[in-house]
Amino acid sequence: QLSAPASLAFTVLAPWWRTPWALFGYAAALGGLIAGVVRLRTRALHERAAHLESIITQRTSELAHKNLELVRLHQLELDEKIAAQLSEEKARLELLRYQLNPHFLLNAFTTLRSLVFSSPEAAGKTVERLADFCRLALTRSDESGASVDDEVRLIESYLDTEKARWR
């Protein structure tokens, strides 16, 4: 016997890889992949930053050390300049000492002593010549900077003082 025709209702479902849960999983996996790449890249950047900071720290300490060395060398240079100036001043004083020979001054004062009582005018002129000689000898800057006129006046003052001594 034949039965009545049966009808079955069915629906065709999408394959499992196209289900909403699968699409959600794909999106989550893609998000995880992106997060992993970002995390790896961030870690690499942090490591590079730490490496660069260590280089900066090292070079900063090297620069500080070099700066201290430069300061020390600069101080040595200043000390050498001061020592050179002191030796130059000592040489000038030595030159002045030789220019104002103590024996010459002793003779000039002895001459003044003898002239004060016998000829006060001549004593006054001798004091002027001696003062002129001392002023010229003590105020001239150096051998190369002295003019011929200054040298002649210095020698004339010296010789005038000696003339008064020897009359």
Describe the structure.
This protein has 167 residues and is mainly α. Helix content is 81%, strand content 0%. It is built from four helices and no strands. The mean pLDDT is 87.
Short description:
The protein is an all-alpha fold. The chain contains four helices and no strands. Helix 3 (120-139) runs antiparallel to helix 4 (148-166).
Q: What are the salient characteristics of this protein?
A:
single chain; about 170 residues; mainly alpha; 4 helices; about 80% helix
Helix/strand layout:
Layout: H1 20-99, H2 102-118, H3 120-139, H4 148-166
Helix pairs in contact: 2-3, 2-4, 3-4
The description of the largest β-sheet is: none
Cα-to-Cα separation, first versus last residue: 182 Å
Strand content is under 5%
Q: What is the overall silhouette?
A: rod-shaped
Helix content: over 70%
Q: Look at the structure and give the mean pLDDT.
A: 87
Q: Helix-strand pattern, N to C?
A: HHHH
Total helix count? 4
The parts where pLDDT drops under 50 for at least 5 residues are: none
Q: How many strand segments?
A: 0
Radius of gyration: 53 Å
